[in-house]
Design brief:
Layout (H helix, E strand, L loop, with lengths): L12 H10 L8 H4 L2 H8 L9
Length: 53
């Protein structure tokens, strides 16, 4: 039961920002590829192909 008392800890905004920064996970491939501007443009349907004249 003593461990449940730890749930009542209040962190400052700076402490939370620091914890978020050091615990961030680099998702890597394929997330980085799928989040790239080119892939987002292609999959969102905003790709415009000009025809040759």
């Amino acid at each position: 039961m003593g461990n449940l008392g730890a749930l009542e800890v209040d962190f400052t905004a700076d402490q939370l920002a620091r914890l978020n920064k050091v615990s961030a996970i680099d998702l890597g491939y394929p997330h980085d590829l799928l989040a790239s501007d080119h892939i987002r443009t292609v999959t969102a349907g905003d790709l415009k192909i000009e025809t040759r004249r």
